[in-house]
Amino acid sequence: MYLTNTIYCVLLSIAASLSFTYGIEIPENFQKSNHSNNWAVLVDTSRFWFNYRHVANVLSIYRSVKRLGIPDSQIILMISDDMACNPRNPRPATIFNNAHEQINVYGDDVEVDYRGYEVSVENFVRLLTGRVPPDTPRSKRLLTDEGSNILIYLTGHGGDGFLKFQDSEEITSQELADALEQMWEKRRYNEIFFIIDTCQASSMYEKFYSPNILATASSLVGEDSLSHHVDSAIGVYIIDRYTYYVLEFLENVHPNSKRSMSEFLAVCPKSACLSTVGVRKDLFKRDPDKVPITDFFGSVRPVIITTDPIDILDIPKRKKKPENKTKVSEKREYLPQFPMHLVQNTKTG
Amino acid sequence: MTKPETKSEVEESNRMWASASFVGVLIIIGLPLWWKTTEVYRVSLPYDKISSFDTLSHSITTELTVLANDEATASEIVGLIEKAFEHSDVIKLKITKSILSKQLHSTLDSVADEVEAVEEVGAAYDLTKHNSFYVVQRKPLFQDTWLAGERVMFFRDAKAARTVVETLKRVVYQTSVVEGAKSEAADSARQTRFPPGGGYHIVLSVVHPRPDALTVELDAGEAVEDYIGSFVDELSVLHNFTLKSQWLHLLDFDFQAKEVRDTSDFGRHFAVRQDRLHLLLTKLEERMATHVSELPTINLALYAVPCERAPLVIYDNNDKKVQSHVQAFMSPKWGGVVLGGPSEPNCRDARVTWRPNVRVVMGTFISQLRKLLGITDAEHIEGAHLEPLRSVTPRQWEIDNLLRIRTLEQLTSAERTLQSLAQLLGEISNIVINDEVGASINSAVDSIQQASSLMTQGKLVEAYKMSQSAFLAAETAFMEPSLLALLYFPDDQKYAIYIPLFLPIMFPVVLSLKNLLLWFRGKPIHKEKMD
């Protein structure tokens, strides 16, 4: 009798808690995120002309997140090679990501933070963990805090359990997982959305063990990630399949659109990608169905209107520090752009 | 018959000694050497001290003096205050009560206004001391309590006790904000103010989109120096500041403002929606070059709206016009923006010149700076009078409270950082802790202990300095570039390299061990021919 009573009680409490959680979830279509700023780390790890497509991948994602509102100061862009200035580029100063050379993703306002040989495993891990040398400028630091949602996008050549950097070194999945754990322990993020477009990509997120990470990969272990198409004028493959379909999806996303993360995760079916897109959501606490895509691709920037300006009555005058001002102001002027006096001299002479 | 035998015995013993030397080199010298050289170097750390940190236990002792006309009033006030702060786990009051001297009593009752009364109290008591506060009785008051910028609050009589307690709790000590400094999740004040640090870089940018159509007459450098400079000088006990000003010409931003007809001089205004404003910040950042300084930058921007788009009015998210004579907004942990422009008569001139009202613009920036640096504005309390701010100088007790908030915040942050680091070292076995990291961890632990004892002694400024050094040391320890060293050589890779190297040599050595042992025991090896 006692036993049945307790069982009954347990069942009741379970039912109560269930109804309680549903009670919270039903009214809102999307679960509120408590992040207060957005960051993006976009990395292309491979160099050389035939890897044109990786640079196009990463620049396309860069354009999209920028369009959706993440400011340049909160995007860390790492590009291993400068395709726009490559001597083999038939259209210098451009990088295209689509057929018929429609969209030039290079443009005039790309802010590359790490370029060329600066893109190394060491710099990448240093960037994530914040262990940068003390003289690193602030634009090269990931200055995130406990309220940051970070989008990490990696593209390059990889294998089972590693991603190659620069043809000379590689980052292993264990190193990456450890770096993310250190970020979590230092409260450097609120949530991470991890995208990787490379061969056997899902092996890179398998070792993750830190909470609040949603990860997706262009291919499973044992599969290759394929490129989308060749541009015959440029002569190389210009974009990867997975990123191509991601971009197609992002084209229709606007800063206040209501697409959910699970739509994003299903963006490239096997028929289109030719590889199986891997998803890992066991570390992620929210339901991707209820997470708007702008939680990672867009940017929140709270704005508070100031309504209480101080009405200053006595005008302050700061005591001048003597060392601050030089007494004699130096007079400077430009040299004449064209040396006319010389011309006149030759005339008279 | 004997000769070959001895020969084979000699050979045998040579062979055995050779294999013994192999064993000696490889197992007795090689293995320990291998073990030692591949060991992760870690300085011994005060793990027990780190794990014993209790981030919730810190409290700050602060002095409060109650001065009343008679013993009964003083006791009543003190009793109520003590009761109210009994359960506060951040602020421990050290209350002294005394009776006002006859002379001071009569002057306080006779002087005309409160400012003079404050001066009188200041002549008798030391109001410049950090972390002290005086609650003084003054009969001729119109309100229950009166509070201005000094560390003095006047109250009328024993009936005002409730207001006194409320004001102390919610205005002077702001216990909820102080508690928020050590809580796990960031409260709204912590989400707004900049994270603690040694210094900040303040930049005023005058944004001038149409220099061809509008002349702006403003000495930005002077304004920053005088107004912002005077303000930050008051906070010099907390942080170092560097000040700078710059002009950004031709930076145009499309506000997508809607023209609305009204009865002002212009006959119209342009309505900007609040949700559009954050894009202005992004636009500004493109040109502001805020990362030239190593310190975190507080951005202040004055946007000069040209005549054809003036006046610009912000509409909030409920489509209500913002009721303020300055159109301004701020973004937490970023900075503030003031939108300004010429007035209607100015715009009729052939050559439009705008002289911004420096007092108003700077007053707005100061108001924003206060919040960005952690001074929260007090709520209004029934019956309590708070003299509004009329200068750039923050109130003395606000600085004290900011010291308390920052001390707690830095201390908590340092402790959490060290605990995270300790946990990480347990989790990830191949992180090196070199001597420098060890030294900064040890110094952080020492500073934390000193700071928390200084806090209980009530030495606020020293405690703040100590907590700052603890905070910086803990950050350096965690962010030390050398901590990365062995992450490049995880265990599995270590074995991947050593095993192919050692296994082919170790195999015969280990197999020969048996023979070697038998030979040493003096038993013959059973390989002799039987013929």
What does this structure look like?
- The complex is a heterodimer of chains A (349) and B (531).
- Chain A contains nine helices and 13 strands.
- With 349 residues, chain A is α/β, with parallel strands linked by helices.
- A seven-stranded mixed beta sheet of chain A has the order 3-2-1-4-8-9-12.
- The termini of chain A are far apart.
- In chain B, 47% of the residues lie in helices and 18% in strands.
- In chain B, the strands form four sheets. In chain B, strands 2-1-3-5-4-16 form a six-stranded mixed beta sheet, sandwiched between helices. In chain B, strands 8-6-11-14-13 form a five-stranded mixed beta sheet, sandwiched between helices. A three-stranded mixed beta sheet of chain B has the order 9-10-12, with no helix packed on it.
- The radius of gyration of chain B is 36 Å and the shape is flat.
- Classes of the chains: A alpha/beta (349), B alpha/beta (531).
- At the A-B interface, helix 3, helix 4 and strand 13 of A face helix 9, helix 10, strand 13, helix 12 and helix 13 of B.
